[in-house]
Design a protein that fits this description.
CATH topology of the largest domain in chain A: Dihydrodipicolinate Reductase, domain 2
Number of strands of chain A: 15
Oligomer: homodimer
Helix content of chain A: 25-40%
Keywords (chains A, B): Amino-acid biosynthesis, Methionine biosynthesis, NADP, Oxidoreductase, Threonine biosynthesis
Order of helices and strands of chain A: EHHEEHEHEHEHEHHHHHEEEEHEHEEHEH
CATH superfamily of the largest domain in chain A: Dihydrodipicolinate Reductase, domain 2
Number of helices of chain A: 15
GO molecular function (chains A, B): homoserine dehydrogenase activity
Protein name (chains A, B): Homoserine dehydrogenase
Shape of chain A: elongated
Distance between the termini of chain A: 71 Å
Number of domains of chain A: 3
Family (chains A, B): Belongs to the homoserine dehydrogenase family.
CATH class of the largest domain in chain A: Alpha Beta
Bound molecules: NADP nicotinamide-adenine-dinucleotide phosphate
Strand content of chain A: 15-25%
Pfam families (chains A, B): Homoserine_dh, NAD_binding_3
């Protein structure tokens, strides 16, 4: 049996979960890994705050140096943010400690430098909890898909926004109301920006892209759109046309070591896609690779226990699995994400009261000027009507054409990509269609 | 770089896939594992059969001894069935070779003895492809959930039956017709018994139970029911009441090292369950564990490429991941699967033409004699009507009561468990309901 001293940085949601799981599952961990993990010191900001885990009290300190000197081999970083988390991790490496962290922002922004530093010090950096909470997605990519070339990843990587969209779709409640409720329930932060504006998902996508495509992309360059503009009317009509609207993180690589495209934003998934039924606080990642074809991993993307599971698994893996051979690569060419081609879902609201007949009329009008309009739907919304249609073969210029041709007082007009509808597929489908 | 000689047994679907993947992905494998796998000999039955992979021709033999003497370190067994596969594997162990296999029947029936033999010879036995095709479920349980106690597994483990049920539900076509079509498309074997009667799923469940619960259960003792009796009418009404009917493999353990219950059979999943939307040839496994809460893995459960992926990943892992510490345990106590308690879906067909009003009448009649009847539905079927209802708190004695009380000429009456409705949950729900 090996005894490993652990220094825990932070005793919030994640820190508390890790502390409790190491205690409650000590026996299984010992049996399966022959290793006993002992938390020696816990770094917090406010030593007087009442803690849920009472036996943690005597381990608290506000001095990081005390943690480093407590006879530890591993530091678990569960503070979050860039500083002081980053400096603490660097000092831990310099002291010869491995580091396990849940910090997606730091990993997205400085992961490569940190990996390099760890390598140069002969220690490891693991961060399973930073993407998808309890879902072992990084471990799966690293250890269980070694013979596969992953060429596409599609993820629902943020539980807060997925919860909000699920509630909006099922209850017809507008964004602001659901957000307020989510904040009350603890599913959303007081400042929801990181979640609802897509920053959190973009961090996770940057981390996934590094591991799966070997691609180094500055997170600020990932095109990003949040969910604030989505209305319940849009969700209802999308579903009626056979799609779910999700905040998707999407990454694709064109050829090995080739350029990539990455994007975070609301997109439509056909209801037959394995991610379309991932609802509420659940996260999921869909991986497409050359031999295995496709794999979907679903689980709870946040919360005390799932996140603690990922951290504790990383702790075990420091001693059970081979260290990463990952070599951070130079910056990768980022292609602009496809703005034209593929199908597009168009949704607009107008103060006019329209019916099915009007919708058919609009559709015929657009088809008459050559726009490839597919399924169409209409619905009653507060103060008027919502109109939706699928435009096959999208071109951004169509926005102006649409507004002019429809001749409606439009209070909002959104266009969203339909996932999986590439230009090539579409061309084939259109050709088949035109033969009918 | 290490060179590893591979002896391939069988050049059917799986063998061909493995041969091709080792070739097409040799570069990635070499880069990531520093190992070059070379197929030295291929054992087949008929050396004159035309093979898809032409460069395999010169490696064919019908003499297993020649394979063993070809300078190999690993045997990939892709023949299937008990003999001669078992003897070949034993001889491979004795010759000091590791073995990778996709053979679920052999692993389910003799896995523990084979593990023991491998251990005693200092070699490894890996079998990821035997459960869930390309889904890395065994690897996930073994390497990525080490600190978790898994207490429940629920799986859609057979692609043939899932395809048949999906087709029946979406097109309303009866079992026999869909089976015939599936056979034409190559989704079902000429002799479909192993799939449609649940044997294949039971093999996989036995393997999963061994790894996740440390439970050794003779596969013949796993209660097993197939899908032959399912009618399209049943599937339609189940969906209308909010459920999908799936052939589920279900395992549960009561306390660590405790007794288990295992069963394979059609069961209802609420449409909100992550497995309910797993359709067609896809397989999926839902794992519930104490820290991570729950994880669902979805992927293609069969086919040349996904299965080859699992075999080739195993080949890599022989040299990259730590060998299993699995110690086969003595036989585990198998509890009879719950026949009473929990909710039950009842479906019957009658030649009489019934309408919604009749359904309500039947429901009231059953409630009057104290049966806890919930959601009810009715539909037109060929030659009459289908009636369905959910009975909360099931008792097998109810079958007789039902038949007597309904007073209908019933041509079929089935009852199916509703997954996730334990007696305890139900008791709580009933209590809440009675207060309304
Ligand atoms: N919550 C989740 O479900 C989840 C899921 C995945 C990943 N993560 C990531 O995990 C990390 C931690 O998240 P969390 O939700 O556990 O945060 P949290 O609940 O806000 O806890 C943060 C902890 O860090 C301590 N802390 C903050 N600043 C500090 C400083 N300058 N020096 C010392 N200690 C400091 C706080 O001390 P006091 O207690 O004294 O205030 C607190 O204990 C973040 O990177 C987050 O993105 C969280
Ligand atoms: N097919 C799948 O998608 C799938 C998925 C998961 C697991 N599996 C498992 O993988 C295994 C192989 O399945 P498969 O579909 O590849 O089977 P298959 O297509 O029927 O191929 C069997 C191969 O084994 C050879 N063979 C049969 N008996 C032999 C004997 N006595 N001596 C030497 N060679 C013999 C055959 O030789 P000839 O070519 O000369 O006839 C053939 O090449 C089975 O255990 C199956 O359960 C299959």
């Amino acid at each position: 049996m090996e005894r490993i001293g652990v220094g825990l940085l932070g005793m919030g949601t994640v820190g508390t979960g890790v502390f409790k799981a190491l205690k409650s599952n000590q026996d299984v961990i010992l049996k399966r890994t022959d290793t006993l993990f002992e938390v020696k010191k816990i770094l917090v900001q406010d030593p007087d705050k009442k803690r849920q885990a009472e036996d943690a009290q005597s381990l608290l300190t506000t001095d990081f140096q005390q943690v480093l000197e407590a006879g530890i081999q591993v530091v678990v970083e569960a503070i979050g943010g860039l500083e002081p988390a980053r400096s603490f991790i660097e000092r831990a490496f310099e002291a010869g400690c491995h580091v396990v962290t849940a910090n997606k922002e730091l990993l997205a922004k400085h992961g490569s430098e940190l990996e390099r530093l760890a390598r140069s010090r002969g220690v490891q950096l693991l961060y399973e909890a930073s993407v998808g909470g309890g879902i072992p997605v990084l471990g799966t990519m690293r250890h269980l898909l070694k013979s596969n070339r992953i060429h596409r990843i599609t993820g629902i990587l943020n539980g807060t926004t997925n919860y909000i969209l699920t509630e909006m779709a099922s209850k017809g409640t507008p964004f602001d109301e659901v957000l307020a409720e989510a904040q009350k329930l603890g599913y959303a932060e007081a400042d929801p920006t990181s979640d609802v504006d897509g920053f959190d998902a973009a961090y996770k996508l940057a981390i996934l892209a590094r591991l799966s495509f070997d691609a180094e992309v500055p997170v600020t360059e990932i095109p990003r759109e949040g969910i604030r503009e989505i209305t319940p009317g849009e969700l209802v009509l999308a579903r009626r046309l056979g799609y779910a609207v999700k905040l998707l993180a999407r990454g694709e690589q064109y050829g090995e070591k080739g350029p990539v495209s990455l994007a975070v934003g609301p997109a439509l998934l056909p209801l037959t896609h394995s991610l379309s039924s991932v609802d509420g606080i659940y996260n999921a990642i869909h991986l497409e690779a050359d031999v295995v074809q496709d794999i979907t991993l679903v689980g709870q993307g946040a919360g005390e226990e799932p996140t603690a599971s990922a951290v504790v698994e990383d702790l075990c893996n420091l001693y059970c699995l081979p260290p990463s051979k990952f070599i951070p690569s130079e910056e990768t060419l980022l292609l602009p994400s496809q703005h034209s081609g593929g199908s597009r879902f168009i949704y607009l609201e107008t103060a006019q009261h329209l019916d099915e007949g009007d919708a058919e009329g609009l559709k015929r009008r657009l088809q008459a000027i050559g726009l490839p309009v597919g399924e169409t739907g209409i619905s009653r919304v507060t103060d008027g009507s919502g109109v939706a249609f699928i435009l096959r073969r999208w071109d951004p210029l169509y926005r102006g054409v649409l507004l002019a041709e429809l001749g409606l007082e439009v209070s909002c007009l959104t266009d969203r990509p339909v996932h999986g509808s590439s230009t090539v597929e579409e061309a084939v489908r259109l050709e088949a269609g035109s033969a009918v």
